Each structure stands twice: as structure tokens, then as C-alpha cells.
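Researcher: Here's a chain I'd like modeled. Treat it as a single chain, no partners, no ligands.
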Amino acid sequence: MNDLVSSTDLASEADEPKTLAEAAYRQLRRDIIEGVHRPGEKLRVEHLKDQYEVGAGTLREALQLLVTDALVVAQGQRGFRVAPISLDDFADITRTRVLLETSALQQSIELGDDTWEANVVAAFHMLSRAEDKLIEGAKGTREEWELRNRAFHEVLISACPSRWIRHFQNILYHQSERYRRLSLFRQPIPRDVHAEHQAIVDAALARNSAEATRILSEHILRTLDAVRQLPADFIN
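Model: Modeled as a single isolated chain. C-alpha cells:
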């Protein structure tokens, strides 16, 4: 049986970093996702160590973690660069994510118990609260929304018995994050993301797996449609 989702669980990444390398990793990761460091940009350790106020060894450790995340590319003796992005890459990520996440949702609807339902309701409530703050323009709300959104999608498929499906869904979700933020916060097409999430929840709680997976698929693909409408210089 799944444990109920708590605010601590949902905000686990908001906890204080345990090491200097972890702190530098989080700051660099956020700046890459937010576009402070552009795709393809060379990440010079001698410059960044002063910007992030850590030693060269600590910064290299943080960059290696970002290589594992596929957000940074190691170039042997030539250092590091921000990983490139492209429409073809995002289309591949999106199509694969749809295959895995809809399958996992279908299994969760079939196998999830009352606790799974309670988790879904709780995660959606926390996401809705973050959406309210985002509309109000409160400080730090973009990061909070992203954490809640990820938690919501994880909880939806948490009753899927395949840990490998959940594992690879998590990787794909992270890989889509840079693209998703470009679309959500620049809004190249009109959409009501809250209503999309509400429709997924309603169908899932009604145990209508066909409707829930259809809506989830459209929800994920709509972000690809939005990214395709961005100016060309955003995706390079």
C-alpha cells in the first residue's frame, strides 16, 4: 500500500542541500533549465567557481552530476558545455513519454487502492495551490509549481507495479523540463493547464482508464505543440 503524500514528500527537493557540491548542482541545474546558461554554451570552471562561490573541484563534481542528468555534455579535456536542445529531440522525448506514462496510468487505475486515490487528490490539491501562487506572482512560485507538477505526475502512476516504467518515466520527465518551462511560461498557445489536470484526475478517480489515458496523452502532446510555436531562436 502507498503512503499518503505529504507536503514534505512533495517538496523533497526544496530541502537544504547536504553538501557544497549538491548546492552548486542545484543552482546550476536551475540556471540551465531557466535558460541563464544557453544550450551549447561552454561552462568554464574558472569563471563559474566564482559565480557559484565554490572551489574548482566542487564545481566539477556538480558538473559531473549534470552530465548524468544529460543537461551538460563532457568534452574530455575541453571541459563542459550545456547540452543542446532541438525540436526533434523533444518530439522523441514526448512520444516515448506518452507510451510509458499512459501505460503506467492504465495500470495504476486498474490496481490502485483507496490510498492511491487519496494520494492523487492530495497531489492535485497541492498543485492547484501552487498554480494559485503562480497566478499571484509570488516569489519562487515557478520552482514550486514545477515540483508540484512533477509530484502530481508521479503520484498518478504510483500504483503501476513496474519500477522500470516509473524509473524511465522519471528520466523522460526531467529531460522534458527545459522545453516545458519554455512553453508554459511564454505561453505560445492558449491552454488551461489546470483544467487539463482536473480532467485527468476526474477520469482516473472514475476508473475510466481509456478516457484518462486519452486526456493524459493529449496533455503531454500539447506541450510539444506549444514548443513548436516558439520562435526559432528559443530552440537551438
